[in-house]
C-alpha cells in the first residue's frame, strides 16, 4: 500500500470512479470492461466508507463511555472516602481499626517491624 493517509486513498478511489465514468466509451473501446471495474470499486469504496463511519461512531461512544466512567469513579471514591472517615470516627481516633482504614485509603503500609531479610538457600548437592 502506498504511504498515504486514509483520506488520500479514499479521494484517489473517488477520482478513479470519476475517471471511469468520464471515459467509459473510450476505455471500453480499448478493451477495459468498465462496468465490472466500476461495480467492484463502488462496492469496495462503499464498504470502506461504512466501516469508517462505524469506527468514528465507536470512537465517539468510547470517548463518552470514558467520561461516564471517570464521573462514576470519582463518585465512588468520594463515597468510599467519606465512609472510611465515618467508620474510622466510629472506631475512635487512634484506634487500631481506624488506623487500618486510614492507611487503606492513603495506600501507605506502615510496618510495625522491619521487613525480614531473604536468606539464600544453598544448591542441593550434585
- How many domains, as an integer? 1
Along the chain, the helix and strand elements come as HHHH
Sketch the major β-sheet: none
Fraction of residues in β-strands: under 5%
Q: How many distinct beta strands?
A: 0
Rg on CA atoms, Å = 33 Å
Q: N- to C-terminal separation?
A: 60 Å
Helix content: over 70%
Give the helix tally: 4
Structural class: mainly alpha
**Average of per-residue pLDDT values:** 88
3D shape = elongated
Low-confidence stretches: none
Folded structure, characterized:
- This protein is an all-alpha fold and 126 residues long.
- The chain has helices at 6-22, 24-29, 34-91, 96-106.
- The two termini are 60 Å apart.
- Helices cover 73% and strands 0% of the residues.
- It is elongated and about 95 Å long.
- The chain has one domain.
Key terms:
single chain; 126 residues; mainly alpha; 4 helices
Question: Topology, please?
Answer:
Blueprint (H helix, E strand, L loop, with lengths): L5 H17 L1 H6 L4 H58 L4 H11 L20
Helix pairs in contact: 1-3, 3-4
Short description, anyone?
The protein has 126 residues and is mostly helical. 73% of the residues lie in helices and 0% in strands.
